[in-house]
Prior knowledge:
Three copies of one chain form a homotrimer. By secondary structure, chain A is an alpha/beta fold. The first copy, chain A, has one domain: Ribokinase (UDP-N-acetylmuramoyl-L-alanine:D-glutamate ligase), CATH 3.40.1190.20. Helix content of chain A is 50%, strand content 14%. The first copy, chain A, is built from eleven helices and nine strands. Chain A has helices at residues 4-21, 34-44, 57-63, 76-92, 107-117, 129-136, 155-165, 200-214, 218-237, 243-256, 259-265, and strands spanning 24-28, 47-50, 66-70, 96-99, 124-128, 168-172, 176-179, 184-187, 268-271. In chain A, strands 2-1-3-4-5-6-7-8-9 form a nine-stranded mixed sheet, with helices on both faces. In chain A, a hairpin with a 4-residue loop joins β7 (176-179) and β8 (184-187). In chain A, α1 (4-21) packs across α9 (218-237), α5 crosses α6 and α9 packs across α10 (243-256). The interface between B and C is medium-sized, with 34 and 34 residues.
Amino acid sequence: MIERTTVIDGLYQDLVTIRAHAPLVHNITNLVVMSQTANALLALGASPVMAHAEEEIMEMVRIAGATVINMGTLDAQCVQRMYLALKAAKVCHVPCVFDPVGAGATPYRTQVAQALIAAGTPMVIRGNASEIMALANNECGTKGVDTLFESDNALEAARTIVRQTDHVVVISGEKDFILTKEQEIMIRNGVPMMTKVVGLGCTATALIGAFCAINPNKSMASVHAMTTLAVAGELASEKSAGPGSFQYQLLDALYNLTFEQLAGRANITFSAAVNFVV
Amino acid sequence: MIERTTVIDGLYQDLVTIRAHAPLVHNITNLVVMSQTANALLALGASPVMAHAEEEIMEMVRIAGATVINMGTLDAQCVQRMYLALKAAKVCHVPCVFDPVGAGATPYRTQVAQALIAAGTPMVIRGNASEIMALANNECGTKGVDTLFESDNALEAARTIVRQTDHVVVISGEKDFILTKEQEIMIRNGVPMMTKVVGLGCTATALIGAFCAINPNKSMASVHAMTTLAVAGELASEKSAGPGSFQYQLLDALYNLTFEQLAGRANITFSAAVNFVV
Amino acid sequence: MIERTTVIDGLYQDLVTIRAHAPLVHNITNLVVMSQTANALLALGASPVMAHAEEEIMEMVRIAGATVINMGTLDAQCVQRMYLALKAAKVCHVPCVFDPVGAGATPYRTQVAQALIAAGTPMVIRGNASEIMALANNECGTKGVDTLFESDNALEAARTIVRQTDHVVVISGEKDFILTKEQEIMIRNGVPMMTKVVGLGCTATALIGAFCAINPNKSMASVHAMTTLAVAGELASEKSAGPGSFQYQLLDALYNLTFEQLAGRANITFSAAVNFVV
């Protein structure tokens, strides 16, 4: 098993690296969260770029440390652009993170999401329980973009995706799970207020992109990103009177996050040989 | 006449219902306010979804409690999508709310707005005075998306629309008016600071959607939504040093709104038999 | 040389005029900053409108005090719309401000930006050092939308553009420069935190539009806009714990900005006959 202090050291080292090098994170994301995502990446220390023109996607992905694709406000044009980014990521060996927003809510979303993860580009997939279940199983439903299930309920679906695709799968929720073929990791941080602000799932996905840009171990990069956001969320909620103040406090907390705050709060559990039983 | 306490009780009951059931509110809205609208719906207790792909509009409206269409950043594609949402709302008997942003500013906007309200789907229309006047009369002008008139000035225009279409019409301004064939209701709440933040009209429209999702009486749902936002605006402005802090305070106020705050501030006047004379 | 008090008086007079008359500022801007740009224009006292439909651009520019075009999230459709706005601005003699976001990051961006500034509409161009250098010289690179150079490094590039096009060029950075054929002006205000929030360059561009709407001297309007934003940034940073609180404090500071604050902080240097040597 991995020592807790080793994990925290690795996480903080990644954060220091991001702050020092400001990796470029390319995003094709939804229209609702563009501003928030860019601000969260900046607060973390990364350098966000939002660019979706067919004429420049290949070039933009090539110079980026990671590319993040998010289908929140998908349409036919957006889907085509996401495919171009996937293709560029594969050709240029740039890490790719995918957010299947609302998969399961409509057949269109489910089909697009399933096709994107099957397109042959290695990726980290981050979704809520409903979304991950929809990716593995057409018959699951969600309510719009909000989940109807606990993250535990999606573990089997996530394992199916991991087995079939070799992608890293992140299920976010009250507990976050990061799954690979070799390992399953659980994070128990964060606060309910994080569901009262739009797009924090999308923010989590983008932060995974930032950590993947500087850490070649995608599952550990995902653990670091999810822990960073969840701990910042805890800190922010303690200073917030509601979702409005929570939003700005979260950016302040990301920007000011210290080793002590991470070490004092990170609640990460590794399951080496045996998977989590739920 | 309706007793004031009955109105406040009904309003608060709706708020409790929204918070308990988190109705799904589908939005095809403008690019400027998407994030703010979603956050306001979340702060209220509703579950927002922004989705505009032709491939899923019918499905998304069908599972929603209400659909909100807003033409703020309209173009030909957006107009087509709004028609699809209107059609879906009619077929699926889902309440529909329409925001004719900037009607009157250009002939294109006026024509699109007039065509949408004539398309045969029952709706609540919420606009400022200039917009409502433009819907009833091509010859009125506005300055971009801001009104040049007091809401009282648009009462005759609103009555014309109500008579011709049977839609519910909401004129927002220093005084808000909600008009049906049977009744006119005036709300005197809110603060000037609400005009110093972009998109609070759009937010009002979206909140009407949330209340319509759980209250079949569209005019009362509109009264409840407009009062909720205006009272939250009053509370927020008392804690704000400017439009920046007002924005987050408004979300906090919506999230924390109590019966006492509503009862202590709501200023609603019903005109049963006789219309307001202005 | 111009007296400092004359400059401050002129700046404050412009601010008073904007607050009194709320000039309409038309924007075709990127999807990331739309909301922020609109809120900054409102906080300043202007009236923003975001409209990009081919069917109404000519009409919207015609009734506007200025038009602002920003290529942050450009694609083929967006480029076509920006050309229409440029054409309308020329025909209607409406001041035009252009933000070449990310010029230099990809060949596509550089080519589009160069073509737009060569299209024959007089304009103010505001960019960071990398962007201005890319406009003058294809061989310069940037990292996404962030600059790799100090603003001083772009002075020669800016002079080349000014000579070739007669546009006013604004280079923003730790020092801001405003260049015309006759004069170069330097502003030393602002704080590093302004680079930790997405889109403050775009906000600067939009504020130039607001000042150009009421002041026919485009270079002085640019000086006034850049100084206003930079001084507001200083005030905001003193009350902020991070980029989240900075964002709302900036809007509050713009809204409440006083003559005393401007007079006490504005650091503007004019170079009449001789250019700044760097």
